[in-house]
Design a protein that fits this description.
The protein is α+β, with helices and mostly antiparallel strands. The model has no long low-confidence stretch (mean pLDDT 92). It has 2 helices and 4 strands. A 4-stranded antiparallel β-sheet has the order 2-3-1-4, covered by helices on one side. A hairpin with a 6-residue loop joins strand 2 and strand 3. This is HMA domain-containing protein. It comes from Flavobacterium sedimenticola.
């Protein structure tokens, strides 16, 4: 399993749910969730495929959110 972890500025559960729903349609067989309680507002994507980090960051940026890989 490959896990990608991103730092975002998503604040509200409603926003997070909308993003998860949208990304789930785009990324086959991925488990996607947010941890909004974390100070970094974590977006976690788990799956067997290697997802393109630049695509995910660009997608969230187009929605108006910041998103960067968390080291």
């Amino acid at each position: 399993m490959k896990v990608e972890v991103f730092k975002t500025n998503v604040q509200w559960p409603k926003e997070a749910n909308r993003i998860v729903t949208s990304l789930t349609k785009k990324l086959n067989n991925a488990k996607i969730n947010f941890d909004l309680e974390d100070c970094d507002k974590i977006l976690r994507i788990e799956g067997t495929d290697k997802y393109k980090n630049k695509y995910i960051m660009s997608y969230l940026n187009r929605l108006g959110y910041s998103c960067e890989i968390l080291d």
